[in-house]
Amino acid sequence: MATFVNECEIPFPVEDVFGWHTRPGALERLLPPWEDVRVISREGGIADGGVVRIRAKRGPISAVMKVRHTAFEEGRFFCDEQVSGPLQSWVHNHEFEPAGSGATLLRDRIEWEPPGGAAGQIFARGVIEAELGRFFPFRARRIAQDLARHAAWQGPPLTVAVTGASGFVGSALCHFLTTGGHEVRRVVRRKPDREKGEIAWYPMERRIERARLEGVDAVVHLAGESLTGERWTPAKKRAIWRSRVEGTRLLVEALSSLRQPPRVLVSSSAVGFYGNRGAERLREESRPGKGFLADLCREWEAEAAGARRAGIRVVLLRTGLVLSPAGGALGTMLLPFKMGIGGRLGTGRQYVSWIDHDDFVGLVFHAITTPSLRGPVNATAPHPVPNATFTTILGRVLKRPTLLPVPSLAVKGMFGEMGRILLLEGARVLPEAASRSGFHFDFEGLEDSLAYQLGHTGPAVRQR
């Protein structure tokens, strides 16, 4: 049987670190974004008897691991054991000890046995140990960052309604909020789960359960037809426009009609507002651009801004490229880069205004909890880079060459208008409003963000 022991120091008291682990969403926040791993069912919490089923996929191979919590002592430790799954055995002890002034020593002791007997010991053990070595530095950093963001809010727990809650950004936001002790009401376009407090809305049919929005403190609006994935045919552009403009209009009308409207609406927009602007430094007061995407963002924001008439503070997040291998553009482009056939697009001089996935989640929370923040806010990191620089850094993090550029004609031929606007055009967008309001970016540099999100940060904790 193999043993893996990992120790890290989290700069928060034991009660905070342990409490974070006991709340809904903690496990989801700890799953590595570079792997296709998700929680598929849960019964109970982390106390003795709780059961979790996790599905992991890699290529065509899929496995489900059923884990049961078998020991628990408040503020000190908890344990989970594999009941069934791909390993011969797995026992994971989580231990919490005070460390110095207001810090916690978090120790993970894992005893496991690979499948396949002697052959598994030879071939699987090294792979599993390498993955554990990638995972724990990521986990330590995310716990510390999340706790720091939660600690910045000194008010009571909030009730937050979220549209687009099933997306790769919205789901992460929901799990972040629940680990902070806040209540989340997911606004969904299907039959709602009442036990989970879900709210139904059907934006294309102009129907929403208004009464269930009564009394929420904040609304985060992230829903909308995807801009990527297919060519922008006239039908696709109509669907994009309706989902964003008309969907936002319906939401704002519902919020404005409430007896007790939310204090704040944080509504997603995009850096496409600025159009194709070369190397011009763009701030929130910069003029809008031209074209379909710029026109869409302008109308989209105008609909959200209508909530001000009901006394609701409105924050318009002009979002850049959100970096996470769990979805979005980075998730799409990873395969060719891992194969060593990635490269710059077109000239490579177009700017990529990006933001780390964790920083974006943190910025949404900052927008909810900062009364002085209102109007347009560029949701981008402080240092956007040209596309050629982006691809070079991604290749370096993955340890792959980036020598095969994709000509502009090929991009236009494959993706049409969508490819031209989203891939070949760019804008150098700076987060002046966020910085001015006191928001702290954990990831100012692109390489730091990509290494963290892809599990290539190297050992940051003691292992044995």
Report on the structure:
Residues 460-464 have low confidence and may be disordered. The chain starts with a strand and ends with a strand. 35% of the residues lie in helices and 27% in strands. β4 and β5 (77-84) form a beta hairpin. The chain folds into two domains: 2-151, START domain (Alpha-D-Glucose-1,6-Bisphosphate, Chain A, domain 4), CATH 3.30.530.20; 159-453, Rossmann fold. It has helices at residues 14-22, 26-30, 117-151, 170-179, 234-256, 292-305, 328-338, 357-369, 387-398, 408-424, 432-436, 446-453, and strands at 2-10, 36-43, 51-58, 61-73, 77-84, 89-99, 103-113, 159-163, 183-188, 199-202, 207-208, 218-221, 264-270, 281-282, 313-319, 321-323, 351-352, 354-356, 375-379, 385-386, 428-429, 462-463. With 464 residues, the protein is α/β, with parallel strands linked by helices. The strands form five sheets. It has an eight-stranded antiparallel beta sheet, covered by helices on one side. An eight-stranded mixed beta sheet has the order 11-10-9-8-12-13-15-19, with helices on both faces.
